[in-house]
Amino acid sequence: MNFNKTAVFLALSICSCFQLFAQQTETIYLSGTDKDHRVDWDFKIDKGRKSGEWSKIAVPSNWELEGFGIYTYGHDWRRLRPESAAIGQYKHQFSVPKEWKSQTIELVFEGVMTDTKVMVNGKLVGPVHQGGFYRFKYDITSFLKFGEENLLEVEVKNASDNDTVNRAEKDADFWAFAGIYRPVYLEVKPKEYIDRVAIDAKADGSFKMDVFTENIKKGRTIEAKISDLEGQFLGSVFSAEADRKLEKATLNYQTENPQLWSPEFPNRYQVEVSLKDGDKVLHKITQKFGFRTVELKAKDGFYVNGEKVKFKGVNRHSFWPSSGRSASRALSIMDVELMKDMNMNAVRMSHYPPSQHFLEVTDSLGLFVINELTGWQNAYDTEVGKKLVKELIIRDVNHPSIVIWANGNEGGNNYNLLEEYPKYDIQDRTVIHPWNTLGETNTLHYPSYDYVYNALTNGDKVYFPTEFLHGLYDGGHGAGLEDFWNIMQESPLSAGGFLWVFADEGVVGTDKDGFIDVKDKETWAPDGIVGPYREKEGSFYTIKEIWSPVYIDKMDITPQFDGKMKLENRYHFTNLSECEFEWQLINFPKPNASEIENEIQKSGKAKSPDIEPDLTGYLHLDLPENWEQSDALYLTATDPHGRKIMTWSWPVKSPEETAETIVSGTSEASASASEKDAVLTLSANGVEISFNTENGLITSVKNEKTPVSFNNGPKLTDENSKFKSLKHYQKGNDQVVEMEYEGPIRKMVYTMQANGWLKLDYSYFLRGRKDFMGINFDYPEEKVKGVKWLGKGPYRVWKNRMKGQNFAVHQKDYNNTVTGSDWGYPEFKGYHDRMYWAVIDTEESPITIVSATDDVFLRLFTPKDSNNENTNPAFPEGNISFMDAISPIGTKFKKPAELGPQSQQTEFHHRDDHQRLWGATLYFNFGTK
Question: Coiled-coil region(s) at which residues (predicted)?
Answer without folding.
Answer: none
